[in-house]
Specification:
single chain, 324 residues, alpha/beta, Rossmann fold, ten-stranded mixed β-sheet, 9 helices, 15 strands, 32% helix, globular
């Protein structure tokens, strides 16, 4: 049995507790949270022990799950790595780039398994296209959320947009050529809404818009590549594919259109969306990486690269942030 300890049992931490309890081969040892009210509620509801300090919980575990606010990530992860414990940490990897680089260095020296919680990698709508060749040349992303004080210790870039940065970096196999960005701080002292353009050396361009002050919710990414379009709705868990019809595509809806190059047959398909719980999937993947001694699904290097791009965006925004 893999012995797991959870650090931070607020809103998201409770989801992690629920899922750990359902994963075979795992023993949920207990949790650490400095907030007495939250801790007492969790102890009573989940019937698992609360530990009074981080060290005692880590010492009783094989691996830790850090769901604490971002500014606590480095201290908890560093302590666990030095104790030889495997680490799962929610995104972003750390509060600063220096902290993130140090965690990558410590992980490489220790040989432990480290996974970053970029949960959209496990969204069923995204999983539905895992076998489809992707080589997008244009990407359009919208991630909009209603305002919630939770998570505002970081900018909208590190709170919301970093999900899409990670997805894009996992899809586009090219280095970044240029980044341009603008942002506005409305409810907090950091950007609450931002628009970003990322240009890659292979010619791909990604436009990203993120807002945490919207009236409606939206989490969509659109991929345009030669002869096809792929739309992924992370919120409603739907995917659509529109492409030039191949001869073997007999089970898709198709229609003909006239183009300057003659008649083309367009096929529309909706891939089967797997019925999976994204959080449970990512935690299970972490457990399996430890048990099978394989690479984690979203490594510390993946987390570092997403943070690096996010901080480049913040640097580009810089003094252009308009405070209302």
């Amino acid at each position: 049995m893999l012995r797991i300890g959870v650090f931070g049992v607020g809103h998201l931490g409770k989801f992690h507790l629920n899922n750990w309890k359902e994963i075979p081969g795992v023993e949920l040892v207990g949790f650490y949270d400095p907030d007495d009210k939250t801790a007492n509620e969790v102890s009573e509801k989940y019937q698992i022990p609360r530990f009074s300090d981080p060290d005692s919980l880590m010492d009783d575990c094989d691996a830790i799950d850090v769901v604490a606010p971002t500014n606590f990530h480095f201290d908890l992860c560093e302590k666990a790595i030095k104790k030889g414990k495997h680490v799962f940490v929610e995104k972003p990897l750390a509060h600063t780039m220096e902290e993130a680089r140090q965690l990558v260095k410590l992980t490489a020296e220790s040989g432990i398994k480290f996974q970053v919680g970029h949960v959209e990698r496990f969204n069923p709508a995204f999983l539905s296209i895992k076998d489809i060749p992707l080589n997008p040349m244009f990407i359009e992303v919208h991630r909009l959320a209603q305002f919630n004080p939770r998570g505002t210790e970081v900018s909208v870039i590190l709170d919301l947009m970093i999900h899409d940065i990670d997805i894009i970096l996992s899809i586009v196999k090219s280095d970044i050529k240029n980044i341009s960005a603008s942002g506005v701080g409305v409810m907090t002292e950091t950007p609450d809404i931002a628009n970003v353009r990322i240009e890659f050396h292979n010619g791909c361009v990604a436009n990203l818009t993120s807002s945490r002050i919207s009236m409606k919710k939206m989490r969509k990414i659109r991929l345009f590549q030669k002869d096809s379009y792929i739309g992924i709705d992370f919120l409603n868990k739907k995917t659509e594919i529109i492409k030039l019809k191949e001869p073997q595509d007999s089970n898709v809806f198709a229609f003909d259109i006239e183009t300057p190059n003659g008649k083309k047959t367009i096929a529309m398909a909706s891939p089967v969306i797997p019925e999976v719980n994204a959080i449970k999937e990512e935690l299970t993947a972490f457990k399996n990486a430890i048990v099978n001694n394989t690479r984690t699904a979203v490594s510390e290097m993946d987390g570092l690269m997403a943070m690096d791009v996010a901080h480049q965006i913040l640097e580009k925004i810089g003094n252009n942030v308009i405070m209302q």
